[in-house]
Design goal:
Layout lengths: L2 E3 L8 H7 L3 E16 L4 E18 L4 H11 L11 E10 L5 E9 L1 H10 L1 E3 L4 H5 L2
Antiparallel strand pairs: 1-3, 2-3, 2-4, 2-6, 4-5
């Protein structure tokens, strides 16, 4: 299953070069509905919010790289299934390709419930759902 990336794993960002460069079959712009973005310390968090939309890329790993890449991304995001201290959860969600029509089932890392609650009560919302555009002057 492809990944939907919206922060430091996007092409041109530092974690893309460290984790994804040379290990993907395709990378294409996309959007994920039902989420909003909050600015974090150096990276964003996606939080469930009806009516929201987040911009990012749909990244498909090369078949031989998938298992190792999935494990490395889980480690990067400090995600461990069932661990209440994980800041992120990896969930399956639909992303929409740039054509606005084609839907792709992807993995995406979203803020864990405790982190999401903290962000909703006092985090910095990225209004347009595009972390890269928010960071650029």
């Amino acid at each position: 299953m492809p990944f939907f990336v919206y922060g430091t794993l996007r092409p041109g960002e530092h974690n893309h070069d460290l984790f994804l460069r040379g290990r993907t079959r395709s990378e294409e712009p996309g959007r994920m509905r039902g989420l909003v973005l909050y600015a974090g310390p150096g990276y964003p968090y996606a939080v469930d919010e009806p009516g929201g939309a987040v911009h990012g890329e749909i990244v498909t790993a090369r078949p031989g790289a998938y298992g190792e890449l999935l494990a490395e991304l889980d480690e990067l995001e400090e995600y461990a299934p069932g661990d209440a201290t994980s800041p992120y959860e990896r969930v399956a969600r639909d992303a929409v390709r740039a054509d606005g029509v084609t839907v792709v089932r992807t993995w995406v890392y979203v803020a864990a419930p405790a982190v999401a609650a903290r962000l909703r009560s006092g985090g910095e919302l990225i209004e347009d759902g595009d972390w890269r555009r928010q960071r650029l002057p």
